């Protein structure tokens, strides 16, 4: 039933780079300010949350501002990474995120730019109990 999620050998370097950036907005070494998150995301970035709701870039940036102003412990674990090239300079990264008892599948579309990486789209889907 599960797909074969083997990353092509030529994408190992991209996989390693992107894995270090996930989960997005939770890696302080890539930034913590609104300006950092703006640089990290495409102007037309949007996401679909685990609830199925769609969120604009502006909304996500506002949520990140509020999170920074009232930090709470966020213990998480990532695993099962897979990278796939969608087009030249455009990559789909998928993985699983465990936050306490909550398990979600994550997908992020990343664009490689001359000066770094940019997030184009993100989705989190909660894994249903078996």
UniProtKB/TrEMBL annotation:
Superkingdom per UniProt: Bacteria
InterPro entries assigned to the protein according to its UniProt record, in alphabetical order: DUF4440, NTF2-like_dom_sf
Domain DUF4440: 34-119
Pfam families associated with the record: DUF4440
Protein name per Swiss-Prot or TrEMBL: DUF4440 domain-containing protein
Taxonomic source organism: Rhodanobacter umsongensis
